[in-house]
Amino acid sequence: MTEARRSHFWHSDGRRLSGLSTLLLLLPFFAIIAFVFVYPILQLLVISILEPHPTLENYARVVENPVHMRVLMRTLWTATLVTALSVVLGFPVAYYMSRAKGTVAALVAVCVILPLWSSVLVRTAAWSFLFQRNGLINSALMALGLTSQPFKLLYTQSAVVIAMTHVLLPFMILPIYGALRSIPDDYGRAAAVLGATRLRTFLEVILPLSLPGVVSGSLLVFLTALGFFITPALLGSPQEMMISTLVSKQIREVLDWPFAAALVGVLTVFVTLLAIIFSKTLRFDRLMGNAS
Amino acid sequence: MKPPADRGSLALGAYVYAVLAFIIVPLVIVIPMSFSQNDYLAFPPSGFTLKWYSEYFDSRQWRAATWLSVQVALLTALCASVIGTAATYAMIRGRSRLVTAFQILLIGPIIVPHIALAVGLYLFFQTIGLSGTIPGFVLAHTVLTLPFVVFTMAAALAKVDANLEAAAMSCGATRFQAFRLVTLPLVLPSLASSALFAFIISFDEPVVSFFLSGVRQKTLPRRMFEDIEQNLTPVIPAIATLLIVLSILILLGAHVLRSRSVTR
Amino acid sequence: MNIASATQSASGASIRISRLEKRFGAVSAVDGVDIDIAAGEFIALLGPSGSGKTTILMSVAGFEFPTSGSIHVDSEDVTYVPSNRRNLGMVFQNYTLFPHMSILDNVAFPLKMRGLRAAERHARAEAALATVRLAGYGHRRPNELSGGQQQRVALARAIVYQPRVLLMDEPLSALDKNLREDMQLEIKRLHAELGITVIFVTHDQSEALTMADRIAVLKDGKIQQIGPARQLYERPTNLFTAGFIGEMNFVGVTVESVGDNVSVTLPWGETWRLPATAAVEPVAAGEAAVLAVRPERLQLGAGSGGQVITVTLSDIVYAGAALLLIGRLPDGTEMRARIPGASQLCALAPGDVASFTVPVEAMLLYRGSRR
């Protein structure tokens, strides 16, 4: 028994790699993840509870200061709003995409996937052009006579919500699309043959079966939105910070590392817990644009 | 004969195309703006000029930032595809309890907010002198791109029958020869497309770059961030247009690679 | 250069599998198997899925390391030798041709691994293709060939470097019935031409019976019986083999006395006297036993030289060469009879009671009880 196990460690048996080669092939991955991912984040968590001395007061500052509490609440609310908007906007697109064929399907797929692979900065910059006093939206509103003077759109929370929804929408559409595509066409046909109207078929067969995709997409959007930095930093108001912009400010302007570390700790622990709770539903491999 | 179109489908279609417009218009809008003669970014754009493009190409700072990002992205693509493919191969053909740990650690960089990793690396890299260096950027971006490489390669390797390698070995090939002569050629298109994706993720990566960039070593996204934050000049639409073209080229490349692997 | 003539002198290798055991956790996939295979022999490993037949083959190929026991090829211990240094030919279930290589490169691959120059390995690959009747197909790609052709390419690749042992893991199960029969003959012909030792894994008993010199019947990792086809069919050594190979009728009986004759009581009270040779396994008076008889050995009508049974027929199936009669004995036990060339018996109808003679020499007696 020991002899066989030892030989599996040292020798490949042809179909499976030996234990030793498995280890060697995984080593660079573990090394870089440990060194460049696990260690720096653990270090931050340690700072948040050990500096200036072993204490939880950094965390107490997050919760007790009403300004910081409002930042946390705003972040949660924004992420929730963005997730809800993404479901409302994304589900019909995913449904349409799963039904479309040929050129139409390709066109819709390009519209969904191209933004996913273009720079977040490009998309955020585009919104800052659109939201300017003399940008497209204000020009259009004034040309239509809906308003006589331009709205203040840039540097508002609405701008952040709209632009974040735009950036994160593909993360909602693709998992729902994946779930819808995995429903065999025959289910819909079977329901129709059994006498269901198209609406009933959708509500009682398609919708329940697509729910895992909706949950997966919602989590993905929600988790990403919680820690989103670029869009709030460029389009948001300095008076209405989100947790990520507050972290950035603490580090770059206030230089309060322990407090920034505590903010990162709150964010990371919350996000990780959510991910662990929903680990069964999250299907990250559906994100690789395998839609076409 | 066409079946009658019902109002439900029409409404769905209209809604979907409105959403698609919401997705695509902000992206497309920067293209005409990049050719506008206006010095300030007013709408509608007027005239036609290439001066914003030449401003970008003539600027030493923009060129330096772009060159830094290109170097980082190329090295990231190389590191991530080699490390990711080795680990994925070990995961699929391997024999180790580490495989479970691998799967958990793999989704870490996707779950944990980039701002958390960026701040952690900012602190860590400053103490060991990697901040603002090419190795520092490459290490950070490799971590961020590894999950994508692994997902792509796992899908590709899972399609290669394990018995093909066994057959090669029964023909006298060593394990490494079996991989190099049989498995590798079969997954090469996926390997290339995962390298392409790693390149574009690194090239466009804004958050970690934002914190790791020094005064002198600034990546293109970091310099764009500053420009958008401070003065928002029409150079930005020009660069944005170039980046969109790059994304299209990368997606086309990936598409060609995928169709090539299908015909196999 | 003709591969067949080149290999005629080189005969197969002998293989000795001793006390082979393979455990996966608590489960024994192979549980103390001994097989001695003579040089040039064609042996089939036959059993239901999970019987350990593939694990044995993979251990011989070097794709599994046994938990204990050893494998010798021509007295060389190869138990832990890596598969690429065993010099065995192997054909897998699903062709496993390298999809990115031409047919010729596929067949030449083992020669490339052995460092042969391009010109020579192509010539020898062409010759090997000719022996499987695929000369001229070398430039094609695997996906341009039919399943049967692909499996013949796999065969050519396995024999091109003149190995002394050929291992085949259910090589025909992916093919449809007609192709399968063609390939059975093809493999038999190659075996005869090359004199190579063949281990052939299958779950198809007719394949094993028609092709192999000897068949090892496996169940739960243990060898149930090993022997030539005729022995397996005519006198299975235990109840499992009796039920696994071919069709068999079973009747539970009680042993009355054992001596020069064996007396058994049938479920409906009748007592039969059987010759002592009928007892395949030793039986003892007072114990339960199972009487087995092949359906084709039953003779319609009451005759001499055997015992007579009465069967209430439930189904009469016309099966071409024979008529299949299905019915029940007085105690309800199902009984099948295959009567050859019996179309004149179409007068029989379901519900009829028919008499059959069971020849004494057709009866086999086993220990234990059925179900």
UniProtKB/TrEMBL annotation, chain A:
Compartments reported by the entry: Cell membrane
InterPro entries named in the record: MetI-like (IPR000515), MetI-like_sf (IPR035906)
PROSITE patterns (alphabetical): ABC_TM1
Keyword set includes Transmembrane helix: yes
Domain ABC transmembrane type-1: 72-278
Keyword Transmembrane helix: yes
Keyword line: Cell membrane, Membrane, Transmembrane, Transmembrane helix, Transport
Chain ranges passing through the membrane: 20-42, 76-97, 104-126, 159-180, 201-234, 254-278
Gene Ontology cellular component list: plasma membrane
Main localization category: membrane
Topology within the bilayer: Multi-pass membrane protein
Source taxon at top rank: Bacteria
Gene Ontology annotations of biological process type: transmembrane transport
Family stated for the protein in its record: Belongs to the binding-protein-dependent transport system permease family. CysTW subfamily.
Name of this chain's protein: ABC transporter permease
From TrEMBL, chain B:
Subcellular location: Cell inner membrane; Cell membrane
Single Gene Ontology BP annotation: transmembrane transport
InterPro entries according to UniProt: MetI-like, MetI-like_sf
Membrane topology: Multi-pass membrane protein
Record has Cell inner membrane as a keyword: yes
Pfam hit, one: BPD_transp_1
Record domain ABC transmembrane type-1: where: 66-254
Keywords: Cell inner membrane, Cell membrane, Membrane, Transmembrane, Transmembrane helix, Transport
Keyword Oxidoreductase: no
GO CC terms in record: plasma membrane
Ranges annotated as spanning the membrane: 12-35, 67-92, 104-125, 137-158, 179-203, 235-257
Coiled-coil boundaries: none
Family matches, as SUPFAM superfamilies: MetI-like
PANTHER family xref list: INNER MEMBRANE ABC TRANSPORTER PERMEASE PROTEIN YDCV
Family: Belongs to the binding-protein-dependent transport system permease family.
The name this protein goes by in its record: ABC transporter permease
